[in-house]
């Protein structure tokens, strides 16, 4: 009895996994089978976002971030892509950190940026570009805060 329950479970599982078969006609030697095609959904079809669209989207998201959790979530998503965000996005992130009054996240934004760029020259270019906003908001770099450890 237990084996019958297992077999019936296997039958239903196999029936679900096999394509639906319609109009099976059996004669003595020939079996004709017509298979009903199943629709295939392409999940990989999506719009390729340009760098400008990416930048505009994250500028808006940082402007809408209303608490620390939201700012950190947007930062995490922004840095998870295989590209370095534009300086204007970093500026909006720093302004969002100031708006929610979170200094450590602002410092860590530069730390993440340092790990995201390919070389020291690119990091220095970002620092030069963002020098005014850093001075305005009073954000120090980790290298400045812990100069003796570097």
Topology (SSEs and partners):
Layout: H1 2-17, E1 21-26, E2 31-35, H2 51-64, H3 68-79, H4 87-99, H5 103-116, H6 120-129, H7 131-137, H8 142-145
Antiparallel strand pairs: 1-2
Describe the protein.
The chain has 150 residues and is mainly α. The protein folds into two domains: 2-35; 51-145, Cytochrome c oxidase, subunit Va/VI (Serine Threonine Protein Phosphatase 5, Tetratricopeptide repeat, Alpha Horseshoe). It has eight helices and two strands. It has helices spanning 2-17, 51-64, 68-79, 87-99, 103-116, 120-129, 131-137, 142-145; strands spanning 21-26, 31-35. The protein has a two-stranded antiparallel ribbon with strand order 1-2. The radius of gyration is 29 Å and the shape is elongated.
N-C termini distance: 72 Å
- Major sheet: 2 strands, antiparallel
Q: Could you say how many structural domains there are in total?
A: 2
The residue ranges in which pLDDT falls below 50 over 5 or more consecutive positions are 6-19
Structural class: mainly alpha
Q: Strand fraction band?
A: 5-15%
Shape: elongated
**CATH fold field value of the largest domain:** Serine Threonine Protein Phosphatase 5, Tetratricopeptide repeat
The succession of helices and strands, N to C, reads HEEHHHHHHH
CATH class of the largest domain: Mainly Alpha
**Overall pLDDT score:** 81
CATH architecture call of the largest domain: Alpha Horseshoe
Can you count the helices?
8
CATH superfamily of the largest domain: Cytochrome c oxidase, subunit Va/VI
Strand order of the largest sheet: 1-2
Please tally the β strands and state the result: 2
> What is the rounded Rg?
29 Å
State the helical fraction: 55-70%
């Amino acid at each position: 009895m237990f084996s019958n329950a297992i077999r019936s479970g296997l039958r239903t599982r196999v029936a679900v996994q096999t394509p639906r078969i319609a109009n099976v006609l059996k004669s003595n030697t020939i079996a004709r089978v017509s298979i009903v095609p199943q629709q295939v959904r392409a999940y990989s079809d999506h719009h390729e976002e340009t760098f400008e669209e990416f930048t505009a989207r994250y500028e808006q998201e940082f402007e809408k971030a209303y608490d620390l959790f939201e700012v950190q979530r947007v930062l995490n998503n922004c840095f998870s892509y295989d590209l370095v965000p534009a300086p204007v996005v970093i500026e909006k992130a720093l302004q969002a950190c100031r708006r929610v009054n979170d200094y450590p996240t602002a410092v860590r934004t530069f730390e993440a940026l340092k790990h995201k760029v390919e070389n020291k020259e690119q990091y220095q270019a970002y620092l030069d570009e963002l020098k005014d906003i850093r001075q305005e908001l009073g954000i120090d770099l980790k290298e400045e805060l812990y100069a003796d450890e570097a």
